[in-house]
Amino acid sequence: MALLAGSAGAxxxxxxxxxxxxxxxxLTSTLLVLLMTVPGLALFYGGLVxxxxxxxxxxxxxxxxxxIVLLWVAYGYxxxxxxxxxxxxxxxxxxxxxxxxxxxxxxxxxxxxxxxYVFVAFQSTFAxxxxxLIVGAFAERIKFRAVLLFSVLWFTFAYLPIAHMVWYGPDxxxxxxxxxxxxxxxxxxxxxxxxxxxxxxxxxxxxxxxREALKPHNVTFTMIGASLLWVGWFGFNxxxxxxxxxxxxxxxxxxxLATAAAALAWSLVEAVVKGKPSMLGGASGVVAGLVAITxxxxxxxxxxxxxIGGTAGxxxxxxxxxxxxxxxxxxxxxxxxxxxLGGIIGALLTGVFTAPSLGGTGAADFSIAHQLGVQALxxxxxxxxxxxxxxxxxxxxxxxxxxxxxxxxxxxxxDITSHGESAYES
Length: 426
Fold this sequence. Notes:
The protein is mostly helical and about 425 residues long. It is built from 15 helices and three strands. It has a three-stranded mixed β-sheet. A hairpin with a 5-residue loop joins strand 2 and strand 3. About 60% of the residues are buried.
């Protein structure tokens, strides 16, 4: 089920209801998504890099999120949700033109609305965290200004069209096809995962990759970050219901269960394959479960959520090991192996477990085969579109400002050479 477009014109002829409980829940959800990013994602990524690069990753997450939130208000909201055709919106709400305290956004219930400012704020955090997710793939060797320029291009030409196609109600092309993406499996995770993989290829491998151990410098940071992601994700998923109703409760429960299943599944696979379950693996399993349940959280039942989480937790272990070796890319923080692969698993299994026969909320005539085809279409379109835009964007960035720091700067660390400070006193 897609998020509905913000539009006063979409309301019922009768005066719409604006429930204070819904408004309070959505403002809280917006804060929770912010928590996911700063500090959640920042700490998760910061712990995974070497100590000489931790501040650079924290800064990239902070700066990219901040930049995209501003771009969202400038032109992102109108191109994603401000009217338009099947593939992109219009400029009618450029710089939030016409958006006031009185204008409203639709919810999933006819006649029930939210203040449009609430919807604008909530969706801005989705856009911001999507851009921030990408930076983990090419961490420890990219120029800071290259990250910012790429983020502008990718947000404009990849995120906004996919968001419009998937979430702009019946007018969005993929929504009209019947694609189910309740909270962002395609729009956020597959989209970002593919962009990260392209970046890993085009920026190139880190010095010493494959020849020396490039170990996380602080797994404790990573665990704290994963925990904050889990807490914040309830706003991401349950908030996507847009109302404080039983639909939000279902998404909330599913997010809890799928993540727990994924954490244990990842740890079990590690215990069998490596002999010991690692803290890093457990934290990665948490993120894999969160990613996989995102598109399905509002339409599958609790047992379906457990199945999706467990499957993603087990398969994403391969995503960051076997698949990573096959792809031969230095995806530094496994953006594709977790977010890309986890998003694909979740999007496809949404088409299975939404079936009422498996506890889902689909219609009585729900066809698993048909829905799987639709889900596969949405995955394929997202993969191709994000890949093409990302290649072009990185090539433009390379031509304009360059992609990679100098070798001496990379060896010394980006904290000092890019930002003039160090996380730890020697």
